[in-house]
From TrEMBL:
One of its GO terms (cellular component) is replication fork. The keyword DNA damage applies. It is found in: Nucleus. GO terms for biological process: double-strand break repair via synthesis-dependent strand annealing; resolution of mitotic recombination intermediates; t-circle formation; telomere maintenance via recombination. This is RecA family profile 1 domain-containing protein. It comes from the Eukaryota. It comes from Henosepilachna vigintioctopunctata.
Amino acid sequence: MRSTSEIKFLTANLLKEFEILSLGCSNIDKLLKGGFRSNVLNEIAGDSGSGKTQICLVLSLIVQLPKRFGGLDKAAVYICTEKVFPIKRLHQLNCWFQQKYGTTKNFLDNIFIQHIPDYEVLMKALHIHLPNLLKMKDIGLIVIDSIAGIFRSDNLEVSYVNRSKQLNEIALILRQFGAKYCCVIICVNQVTENLDSGKREPCLGLTWSNSVISRFFISRCYPLSQRIFQVIFSPYLSNSECKFMITEKGIENDM
């Protein structure tokens, strides 16, 4: 439940219009009513290898395109908590985008990457590094891939009370960035097996779920080249799904 200190009234002139960032895949864009919205906290959850990171890499390139191509003409911030950032794949996508849009622009120059190993380093990045970057650069997309990776631990004596406080703090800061700078915020999340229901669910529990505004889920299906993109909950989208594929060119409609 949100603290009452976070809830306040605003006059209409202080409310900013949201931006929409296309994924360049008409099936998913139609599902999202044009693309991912700014000013809110979006989550993309799914199994390992389902395509979560692929979507984020493509968005990091598309955000740099002019609005007539579905972009925001802005740069991207990519916070990676996994062991290895997929730089080879990003180079491949960069080459394809140069070819597709007939430009020599190096899209990699406008993707700012930082590797984050734990919560303490993330807090330093969110309180110091990222605010400084947002003041200097016009950022349209902030990705954390993955939010669950911050809390990965072999310690069995985890304080869930402390973790809930940490998750609330992260969510609050990200929402503030989204509102102040009108940028798209996407947190990738892993999934875990619910032993009671036997279903796969996004990690980090109820505290994090209550912080997320829009939750999307990706799963693989047969044939394995196909993926399913689902809207789990969102205040402005209906619960629906569509199929898509991941190719060397990025994210494309299912054939």
